[in-house]
Every structure is written in C-alpha cells, then in structure tokens.
C-alpha cells in the first residue's frame, strides 16, 4: 500500500533567518507509517495547487504566535513575536484544503485553525485566564503537565479510550472563544479547550499539547499520529 505524504508547515528562526524542523513532527509521522514533507515558507496559490496534488494531508505545527488581526484584535504587549509570512502561508493552505484533505493541528496549529474558522485566542494565558494550571512546563517535555477531560463520542475519545488524559503543556496562548464549525474534544481543569475537532467535512483534529514530544512514551500521542496518518492513506 502506498504511504501517505504529509505536508508539514515549516518552522522559522528569525535569528538565523532559516526555516527548520523539530524531528518529532517528522519522526511521529514516519512511525505512524507516513512520509513527511516540509513545505516552503511561502507559496503562490498556483504553486500550492501543483504541490497539493501529491499531498494526502497537512500537519499545522507549533511555533510563533499568530497575528491577532486574524481574529480581529489588536496585538497586546504580551503577545509574542509574529511571523507574518507563516501566517499568510498557513491561512492560504488551510482555506484551500479545509474539508478536502485531513488536517492535524498541534499547539500553534489548534490556535491558527480556531482563528481562521472565526474563533478568538487568549493572547497570554497568565494575564487573561484565572487558572492554577501550569501550561508552560519545564523539560523534559514528554512528562505530564496537567490533565484534560476527553469528551465522549469524539475522535479523540476513540483514540485515547479513556476520559482523563495526562498531557504535556508548552503554550502561553489558547482558545478563548471556540469557532463555529469546531467542537471541543478535550478540556483542561481550568476550563481551557485543549483539543478540537472539525465539522467542516473532512478529518480535522487539533490539540494544544505536543504529541511530537511524547509519541515514543505515550500511546495516545502515538495514536494521534496513527489515526491522522491512517485517514490520509
Ligand atoms: Mn495546556
């Protein structure tokens, strides 16, 4: 059987002016039976259409904060560095493929998807969310930082097969208002939505935690890569 090709959003290092990749994203896809392929930092829509012919699904990776203008807000001082070129690339790709090709979002990915579908974000959880949960853990990142409750009947509950799941946590932003067209499928103890699924047609799963750091030690993290890769086949 042909292995699915997964288009992976590139990470950007502004100090080195380089695109780069965390091995866990690639290795998680490979371990799940897919072939990862990193996309360029910018693409015309026409060139994207050509590439898209060969790609079976898309992984929206972690990284910089997205510009609050994507959800109609001014940028607060606590909002991190913005990478406008990446915002533009990912918005163009998501709008072209949503409902047509499987999508997996991780960290920035869940935030981007929620914003593009009409939701909003906390620009800084510590300032805006009354919470005792530590969402910004120290390494090692395959440790559990906090629990989430998984909503029954979701894709995620199918993967995890349990109601309470321990997850890692390395994010300072998060979903404030959930976009129409998304359902919450995991919720942290402080009420923060940590996983969403789509109702826009095709497969769409996004998580606020980082399965790319824990797929080797945690079955559910591996299960997320496996489910996504299997659907892309
Ligand atoms: Mn968290």
The total count of helices amounts to: 8
The biggest beta sheet reads:
9 strands, mixed
Give the H and E element order: EEEHEHEHEHEHEHEEEEEHH
Average pLDDT number: 97
**What is the distance, rounded to the nearest whole angstrom, between the alpha carbons of the first and last residues?**
9 Å
Shape, please? globular
State the helicity in percent bands: 25-40%
Question: Beta fraction of the residues?
Answer: 15-25%
Structure classification? alpha/beta
Bound molecules: manganese (II) ion
Strand order of the largest sheet: 4-1-5-6-13-12-11-8-9
Low-confidence stretches: none
Quaternary form: single chain
Give the total of beta strands. Answer: 13
- Any idea what the radius of gyration is? 16 Å
Output the keywords.
233 residues; alpha/beta; nine-stranded mixed sheet; two-stranded antiparallel sheet; globular; binds manganese (II) ion
Description of the structure:
29% of the residues lie in helices and 22% in strands. It has 233 residues and is α/β, with parallel strands linked by helices. Strand 12 and strand 13 form a beta hairpin. The protein binds manganese (II) ion.
In short:
The protein has helices spanning 23-31, 45-52, 84-97, 108-116, 125-128, 155-160, 211-214, 219-232, and strands spanning 5-8, 11-13, 18-20, 35-38, 57-60, 103-106, 121-122, 146-150, 164-167, 174-175, 182-188, 193-198, 204-207. By secondary structure, it is α/β, with parallel strands linked by helices.
């Amino acid at each position: 059987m042909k292995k699915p090709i997964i288009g992976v959003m590139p990470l950007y290092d502004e100090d080195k002016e380089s695109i780069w990749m965390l091995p866990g994203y690639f290795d998680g896809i490979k371990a799940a039976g897919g072939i990862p392929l990193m996309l360029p930092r910018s693409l015309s829509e026409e060139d994207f259409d050509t590439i898209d012919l060969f790609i079976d699904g898309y992984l929206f990776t972690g990284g910089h904060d997205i510009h609050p203008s994507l959800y109609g807000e001014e940028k607060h001082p606590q909002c991190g560095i913005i990478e406008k070129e990446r915002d533009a690339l990912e918005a163009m790709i998501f709008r072209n493929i949503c409902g047509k090709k499987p999508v997996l979002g991780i960290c920035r990915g869940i935030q981007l998807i929620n914003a593009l579908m009409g939701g909003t974000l906390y620009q800084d959880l510590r300032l805006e969310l009354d919470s005792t949960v530590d969402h910004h853990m120290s390494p090692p990142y395959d440790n559990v930082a906090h629990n989430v409750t998984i909503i029954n009947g979701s894709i995620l509950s199918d993967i995890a097969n349990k109601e309470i799941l321990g997850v890692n946590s390395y994010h300072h932003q998060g979903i404030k208002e959930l976009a129409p067209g998304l359902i919450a499928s995991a919720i942290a103890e402080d009420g923060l939505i940590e996983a969403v699924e789509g109702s826009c047609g095709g497969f769409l799963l996004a998580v606020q935690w980082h399965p790319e750091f824990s797929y080797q030690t945690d079955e559910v993290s591996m299960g997320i890569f496996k489910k996504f890769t299997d659907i892309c086949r």
